[in-house]
Write a structure and sequence with these properties.
By secondary structure, the chain is α/β, with parallel strands linked by helices. Helices cover about 30% and strands about 20% of the residues. Helix 6 runs antiparallel to helix 11. The longest helix is centred in the middle third of the chain and has 27 residues.
Amino acid sequence: MKRRVLALATVGVTVAGAAAIYALVDRSDDSATTPANANAFNCNTFQIPAPAGATVESLTATAVPAGTFQVPGTPPLGGYPVPDVPAHCEVTVTLTHPGANDHAKVQVWLPESGWNGRFQAVGGAAYAAGNIGGVAAAVKQGYAVGTTDAGVDTSGLNSSWALNADGRINTALLENFASRSVHELAVVGKQVVNDVYGHAASYAYWNGCSTGGRQGYMEAQKYPTDFNGINADAPAINWNQFEVATLWPQVVMKEAHTYPTTCEFNAFNQAAVKACDPQDGVADGLISDPSRCNFDPRSLIGTKVACDGKEYTISEADAEVVRKIWDGPRDGNGQRLWYGLPIGADFSNLTASTTGPNGVTVGAPFPVPAQWVANFVEKQPAFDTANLTYAQFDQIFQQARSEFDSVIGTADPNLSAFRDAGGKIITWQGDADQLIPTAGIVDYRNRVDAQLGGTAKVDDFYRVFLAPGVAHCALTGSNDLTALTAWVEHGQAPDVLRADLTTATGQTVSRDICRLPFVSHYNGDGDPASPASFRCVAPTP
């Protein structure tokens, strides 16, 4: 259970802690245009117009002195301190929508001094629409910054709001969570900035990972003029495909009556990394292009693995389970439904099991997709996703897409309005993302290319970077937001992102993360821990 609890910390936040995502977001001293009347700081209660279709229920403005902010709640999104938060104005605006009986809270923090002239909106994780810890961290960087709770639970792992008392979908809250509240955050946040400082922000940015990444893409697709720049990482787009697909490993193990141990799963990953690591020119504990790793799990059949004082022999059934998990879900006719777990990604979040009645091993599905299927698709909170058959999985997959793609799918490749408004998007995702298959963002980017005239034209406003060996939302030391502001404000499009990577042996190395479609390759000499020893090249056919 300890491993399981720790795994929840990766639901949209870095393994190093929720605050770490935002603590490194902007190391630049370059500020946007400083407002001429920046001294007109006004942290008093005022009135703002409501966004279209909404009503302002309440508005408060409170001057808060500098100090440590204790993020409310429990991990992963709460329960930790953010030190050295500067003196700021906290504005809270509560919105409701006629007939919805909802109460969506927008919070905007504005530094009393040292404002960089920019507004940043912070995204959420799992079923949380926002992240107040991210707000506290970003205001330290000089941003006026906001987030929204969309009127739903803020813990991230509670979607009980999905159903009304009569057992039907709460369409108002789902709309809030899917798209409406993020747009209203942009509208309200920019208005608050104008009223507190007496001047509009020079630029508006979105910053989020996982659900926060999906929210960023929804903004680009549906509200293309809300933000000048969008930093949307490991995005939970193609929501219905990947959420249901995350349950595929449980289906495979249940149907095969085979539940490999954690040690056995790790043995497959270690063997795959050993086999495919040298493809980039050097054995450095990182697979630069997992999509071209053709390691066959059957090569480990008969291998003995020691685990917790016991010895296990990898069987043909174990290898077939791993093959199907890596391959991804298919329907009864063998047609691909979605992508599988990337080779090299940690199995443990998706393949947890426990001992049930009579000593029988049963699955323990990851809670986020399990709740999506139970609460939204089946509309039965007690629905057990641990015992799905292949046929049931196929039916649920199709039902989820049919019912919810138009609401929360976030897969529209037509970004022309965002492009025409001058917006820029940066996305990074780990090649070892264990929760959202990395192939999904590659598929989306390819569809955008096809829609908008090819790779070169799309690169003018939208770039994707894949980070070798990185798990879900776990990239550290990245200059992503600095690169985005340089692109938006100075036209400097990034060819690489600089970040820290952790190798299979636990070594931390600094590396330039290549943009699609390029991959990192060792130049033949030099220190493998140095970024200068690698170059970005076209992938081998």
